[in-house]
Each structure stands twice: as structure tokens, then as C-alpha cells.
Amino acid sequence: MVNIAVLGYGTVGSGVVEVVNTNGARINQRIGDELKIKYVLDLKDFPGDPVQDMIVHDFDTILSDEDIKIVVEVMGGIEPAYTFVKKCLLAGKSVATSNKALVAKHGAELLSIAKENNINFLFEASVGGGIPIIRPLNSSLTADEIEEITGILNGTTNYMLSKMFYEGADYDTVLKEAQANGYAERNPEADVEGYDACRKIAILSSLISGQQVDFEDIYCEGITEITVEDMKYAKAMGTTIKLLASSKRHGGNRLHAIVAPCMLYPEHPLYNVNGVFNSIFVHGNVLGDAMFYGSGAGKLPTASAVVADVVDAAKHLNRNIMTMWKQEKLKLEDKADAKRRFFIRFKGNEDEMLPRLQDSFGDIEIIKAEGLLGEFGIVTPVMMEGDYVTRANIYREQILHMIRVEG
Amino acid sequence: MVNIAVLGYGTVGSGVVEVVNTNGARINQRIGDELKIKYVLDLKDFPGDPVQDMIVHDFDTILSDEDIKIVVEVMGGIEPAYTFVKKCLLAGKSVATSNKALVAKHGAELLSIAKENNINFLFEASVGGGIPIIRPLNSSLTADEIEEITGILNGTTNYMLSKMFYEGADYDTVLKEAQANGYAERNPEADVEGYDACRKIAILSSLISGQQVDFEDIYCEGITEITVEDMKYAKAMGTTIKLLASSKRHGGNRLHAIVAPCMLYPEHPLYNVNGVFNSIFVHGNVLGDAMFYGSGAGKLPTASAVVADVVDAAKHLNRNIMTMWKQEKLKLEDKADAKRRFFIRFKGNEDEMLPRLQDSFGDIEIIKAEGLLGEFGIVTPVMMEGDYVTRANIYREQILHMIRVEG
């Protein structure tokens, strides 16, 4: 018998209980032992609920029970999750979590405590929900130097951008719709400002570099400035706009990490990822291109990943699965040194401005979008972002918006 | 030091050497020890080649060397690969292989020998080349009942069908082109008849059921009958034609497995997989939909997967990683009991035949393709394949072709 405790009976926590109840027989077969949820920690009682007899209100009940070998943390947020998880690991209990904020901030430390105690700290569900990506990076793509990892890591914003692109809807309308459908929170900041995607790419960047990447160090731009007009230009260019979270290697162990809306051409593997789905593109120096696609959020997909971690923890009781993620901080490449093309919208007349713009930006492409008068767009050649900033500065009165072009 | 031997210095074998040479430092870091290729078994010598001093011609040199803890088998074919691999496992050496024929036929037995000897038999590269799919099925999707696994598992036929669809080329022309580009063998049978994809879906079916699925039991239809005309109908329907290898659960542990060209709508996750790429769609009962995409073949992608298995074997010396695949044979669902829609091309006039066809097949959809006179197509409602066969039998003189419709 492998006894586990679940910290938090919210969406993911109740999903974990449901997954264990639904697929228990198969799960036990895979573990080679019987999995049993002994406690569910929550502030509330749930009379009439299948878990009513497992509910405890005091974390110390779980901590002090030596039967509990694995703890599932699905409360979210840094505290008290961090304190609880650390105590569990120090007490020799493995932990599986879906908490991206916790993992992004304290992942390296918690992994090192798990290693010292010969147990495991697992967090597959913290990035890409049900999509297996952490374990593949950790144990499948081990013959490669990962040169790029770029993902659509936030379902809310992808749903919104898909609606804006395919239906021509504006930002405020799609946000209200996303809120009405339960895809966006009442306070949508974490999604629409890119913070959620930023924590996730910080975790992935730490894993591919083996060092701590702080999300605060990653340049992060959300989708709040994307307009109906921008989408018209995107269509005129044959592109779409996606919120990409990306980390690219720039020689040695230096990464350029960024979260920003980007224009993507149809050839890009992430172009067709629509709605609430997530997808993660990986380029390895010998593997070449690979992509992982699935539900990035949702009760059951996320719970599926958490329970898979529980299975792995149960198969590795008293045996640490090595994860390379040192606490030593990685210095990220300066955004100014990243090379790409830029789409820029200008107020004014393209014929009048063209000679000056060519002088500033070189061999540019002019983009006109249907129905948009008194403005035009250009696409620059590949240049360093620092150079773009210097040159764009001259035109700051005329520039309406800039969107990065991927590929 | 972890000493390994490579059996076979062909395309994949030389790729394995190249990957170890290129990414050695990173690989050693992941293993926590130094990986060294001590022997390469081949019939030929390779004077001037970096491996010239490692070449041995006698398998027994490798078998009797106790330093060799891991053996890479990349010779292909059943014999002598099977004899060599079995001897290695019995001698306590873990084996990593890319050999789908070997795995499909003897996987269950070789896994069981590995388990008894507390070592590992790993075969990530046998399906989907560089795409991680075996290990994710085995250790990531463990909280789910996998209800469907459907893949584009053969790059050669996908390249050919993509060319036929996008360029309107005919089968013979694209086959010659594929052969000229090195994508198809001079004898293309294994690819175009679907046998390669069939061995791969047999392996995946065994893994999701935990029992032996023989590829000989799987209905297998290749792409040799797909014509320019079929592609015209596919376009008229807004679909494309892909060679799908598929295994679907029909209640309990019964699978319906099939390899056949299918018409796919743009909403299907595999619709956009073009050229030599492979992709594998998985539906889990709690995970929902997921998809894995990448290079299904090629020297370095395949070698990347083989070396990742070597890393895993090196991290699990004397410790078996459990894989559920018993030798007990799984009885597959009869093809006649599988339900789907069918596209059927008829000789004749649709107005004349419509009443009779409606009588036979129910609520059908008529499809006309540009420029095709004296024939037409229909799409049937969802029906059992057995019923389709009975009804189609009445029209066997008029039926030009049948293609299954997916989704």
C-alpha cells in the first residue's frame, strides 16, 4: 500500500481524486502496489463528498504520519505551499506539484532537498498541463543539446488570440467571452500580461540549462496591446499572432529568453495551435525539430500529469531521479543582442516615408492592410533588437505598434 | 566509466558514434559518469574512420567482455540481431535498439529476460525515430487509460502522399522522386505496403494493452492504390489522405488496430503533418488529446533516441525499468466490428444510382470532383465495416475505390 495525501481540494485536487478513483486499477498495476489517498488537506469540510472522511484541516497530521510517502501539492501560490512542500521533503516524503509559481521560484532548492533525502520532487503538471514535457526533457532528450524551446504555454491567451484572428473580434470582447466561458479569471492579469507563460518558460529554461533562470529576468510582454488592426496586418502578411514563450541558446550555456506576442508563418509548427490548447516546440542539435501538443490546463488533464508523477514517485520510493537544475543563477543574454525581424506599424503615408525608412532599416517590406487608411506596416530585415530600438527611436512619434516576427 | 558496444556501423550506428562524439560532455553530465564506445561490431573495416580502432568482427569479443554494460543494436532485421540481443541480455548487458522488426516480434520476451536479469531492454528509436513516444507512454501517461493511439508512422509514404495532395502528382512519379531523394528504398514495399507502419503500431498497441499484439494480426493496407483521382475527391471534401496506423480501445482491453490510408478533415490533429515528418496522436481517458511530432527517421534523430536510451540504461544499471508487455497474446477486435464512415467511388451516373445507394447505405453525401466524368463519390454515414462490406458487395462491379474516413 502506498499512502498519499493531497494538499488542497480545489479544481486540480478534486481532479486528482477523480483520476485515482477512475483509473485506480490500471494505476496500481503500473505501480505494482495499491495507491491510497489517505488525507485531503483543506480549510473546508466537504460533507457528502467522497473525500469527506479523508479531509483534515491540520497539515501536521499529514507531516507526522509516517505512512504518507507521497504528498500532492495542488494549492497554488508560494505560501503556505513552499513551507509545506519543504517540510514534506525534509521529512522524507516525495512531492508532486502542479504549482508553477512554486517551481519557478524554489524548484532548484526543493530538487536539491529531495536529492539529499533520496526521494523526489516532481512537477510535470507545472508546465503544459497534461502535456508530457518535463519528463521528456529530463529523461528522453538526454542525447541532445537543446538549442531552442518555444511554446504556446497559456491557453487563455491562445484562446483569445485565436478568436481575434479567426473571427476578427477585438481584445475586450474576447476577454469578456473568455471570462464568461471560465477560460479567463476575473482578474486576468497573470494570463494576459504573460506572467503565467513567463513562469513556465523560466522553468523550462532552468531545465535545459541546468541552472536557475529567474522569471523576473525574462523580458515579458503580454497581449493587451494586440488590436483588430494588428490582426489585419498579420493576415495581409499570411501570418498569425501567438503569445510565444521562448528560450534560445546563443552559444555555450547562454540563453535568450522572452515572452511576447509574435507573428508566425504557416510553416511554423506552432501556427496551427488554436483555442485553449498548448504546444511546445523543441529543437535539439541532433534530434532536430520535435513538438508536444495537448491540453495545457483543465482539471483532468492537469490531474493526469500530477497522478503520473505520483506513479513515478511510487516507483522510485527512496531513489532520487536526477534532475539537472542547480541553484546557481544563469545570466541571460541581453534582449538587445537577439536577432530577428520586426513588424512595425507607422502613422503616415508609405510613399513619402519609404526612402527615409529604407535608409534607417535597410531592405524593408511594405505591408498594407485592407481598410486601414493613414497608416501602413513594414517588416524589417533580420536585425539585433538593440539596433531596432535605436532606429525606431527616431520614429517614436509615428510608430503605432511593433510586433516581433518569428522565423 | 560506462563502456558500450555498437552492433552495426550503418546509418544509425555511425549516427550513434557521431552523437556521442558531438554531445559527449553533456551526456556524461547527465549520466554522472563517462560514456565510452569501446567496440563497434561490423563485417567491414573502416580504415581512416574515427572508429577504426574500435571495430571488431567477432560478436563474442563483446559478449565476453565484462566491461561492456550496455549494447546498442542497430543492425536491423531479425537475425542475427535477435540472437545477439538475447545473448547480451542473458549476460547481464542492457540493450538499446532501433530495430522495430525485432521489437515487434520479440519485444515481450526480451523485456522479460531484461527484467529477470535486473537490466533493461530499451527501444525508443523503434517507433517515431527521434520522437519521444515509448518512454512517455511508459512513464508519463501512467495515470490514463489510453483509448486511442493513431500515428503517421512512416515518413516515406507521408512524403509521397503530401506531394500527391499538394502538387497533384501521381503515385509512380512521387515514388521515383522519393527514391531519387533517398526517402524511399529501391524496393519500397515495406514502406508503401504499410508493413513498416504496421510493425510500429503493433509495438504501440502492445504497450498500451500490456499484451502481445502481433503485426500479422493487424489489417494492413498501403498507399499503392491511391490515385490522382482519389486526391481530387479528397480536396472536394476538404480532406487530405494520410496513411494512418491506429489502435483504438473498444471497451475493456480490446483493441481495434488497423493500418490504412484515411481521409482526414482539417480539424484532425494529424491533418497538417506533412513531408517526411511523423506524428503520433494519443487520447487518454483523463488526459484528453495529446500529440507528439518530429523526425520519424534519419541518421541523427534516430541516433538521438538510441543514445537517450543508452543514457537511461546507464542511469539504471542493475535496476529494471518496468514495462508492461506480457507475452500473452491480445485478441484484436474484428475489423468488421469497427465503426466509421466510408468514402466510395462509383462508376456511373449519380442521379440514376442515388435512390438505390440511399436504400443500401442510408443518408449518404454525394461528392463530385472537378474534371472526373462518368464517376462520382459518396460518403456513407457511420457504419460497421462488416455492414459496409455486405452492402458494397452488391455494387462490386461499379465500385472503383473505397477509402476510410477518419473522424
Provide a brief overview of the structure.
Two copies of one chain form a homodimer. Helices cover 37% and strands 24% of the residues of chain A.
Question: Can you tell me about this structure?
Answer:
Two copies of one chain form a homodimer. Chain A has 407 residues and is α/β, with parallel strands linked by helices. The first copy, chain A, has three domains: 2-129 and 300-315, Rossmann fold; 144-294, Dihydrodipicolinate Reductase, domain 2 (2-Layer Sandwich), CATH 3.30.360; 336-406, ACT-like. Chain A, domain 2 (Alpha-Beta Plaits), CATH 3.30.70.1150. In chain A, the strands form two sheets. In chain A, strands 7, 8, 9, 10, 11, 12, 13, 14, 15, 16 and 17 form an eleven-stranded mixed beta sheet that branches. A six-stranded parallel beta sheet of chain A has the order 3-2-1-4-5-6, sandwiched between helices. The first copy, chain A, contains 13 helices and 17 strands. In chain A, strand 14 (365-367) and strand 15 form a beta hairpin. Chain A has helices at 11-31, 59-63, 81-90, 100-116, 134-139, 155-167, 171-180, 189-192, 195-209, 228-236, 299-315, 350-361, 385-394, and strands at 2-7, 35-41, 55-56, 68-73, 94-97, 121-122, 146-152, 219-220, 240-249, 255-264, 277-284, 288-295, 339-347, 365-367, 375-379, 383-384, 399-406. Helix content of chain A is 37%, strand content 24%. Chains A, B: It catalyses: L-homoserine + NADP(+) = L-aspartate 4-semialdehyde + NADPH + H(+).
What is the number of independent domains of chain A? 3
Residues in helices of chain A, as a percent range: 25-40%
In what range is the share of β-strand residues of chain A?
15-25%
Q: Could you tell me the number of beta strands of chain A?
A: 17
Cα separation of the termini of chain A: 51 Å
The average pLDDT score of chain A comes to 96
The CATH architecture of the largest domain in chain A is 2-Layer Sandwich
- Radius of gyration from the alpha-carbon trace of chain A, in angstroms: 23 Å
CATH topology of the largest domain in chain A: Dihydrodipicolinate Reductase, domain 2
- Which two chains form the greatest contact, residue counts included? A-B, 53 and 53 residues
Strand and helix order of chain A: EHEEHEHEHEHEHHHHEHEEEEHEHEEEHE
CATH class of the largest domain in chain A: Alpha Beta
Classify the secondary structure makeup of chain A into a structural class: alpha/beta
Low-confidence stretches of chain A: none
Oligomer designation? homodimer
Question: How would the global form of chain A be characterised?
Answer: elongated
CATH superfamily of the largest domain in chain A: Dihydrodipicolinate Reductase, domain 2
Profile the largest sheet of chain A. Answer: 11 strands, mixed
Helix count of chain A equals 13
Domain Homoserine dehydrogenase catalytic (chains A, B): 132-311
Binding site for NADPH (chains A, B): 100
Enzyme class (chains A, B): oxidoreductase
Family (chains A, B): Belongs to the homoserine dehydrogenase family.
